[in-house]
What we know:
alpha/beta; globular; Rossmann fold; about 20% strand
Amino acid sequence: MKISSTEFVKSAFAEEGWPRVTLPEVAFLGRSNVGKSSVINSLLGVRGLARTSSTPGRTQALNFFLINKRLHFVDLPGYGYARVPRDVRESWGEIVTNYLAKRESLVLSIQIVDSRHEPTTLDLQLREWLQAHEKPFLTVATKSDKLSNNELRKNLESAHKLLGGRNQVIAYSAVTKRGRDEVWRAIEEAVTVSQSPFLKSEK
């Protein structure tokens, strides 16, 4: 997809803050400090639109970005950072679960994992939730440029067994842009399907 415009729309801490414009939405999920913001920025070919932080757990809201005035990217709070107070972690979980369960305009969830490490228990729980609720999702293993080809192949095979199921696990690098075209193809397909009147009527 050629990116003609990108715009930060708003941060939302609760359902009443979600944009009322019903454009297709693509959500990005993953552990704190796994590189969600870097993936978003590299997909869009911009710097700093989605804010990155060296401190895990910094993002506490749903951040909405308008892409080509056609769809929204949604950067969800990261999960699994132990130093965040328990009550705050629980409130983030409620925010994310509420969005994933209720948002009718959500067409694709992109679960981001670190290709250098095995998926965590929380990664597996998220995958199971998405599958149980029949939410379309894609798994992206980022930071692939930090591994040798053999290490990457081995880790992708392991991640696919744990997370992929029938879904492909895409190796991604925000540095080299590896996997960028594959992710965009999945996004465009999800958006196209969501906008098909025939397919909507069949649901």
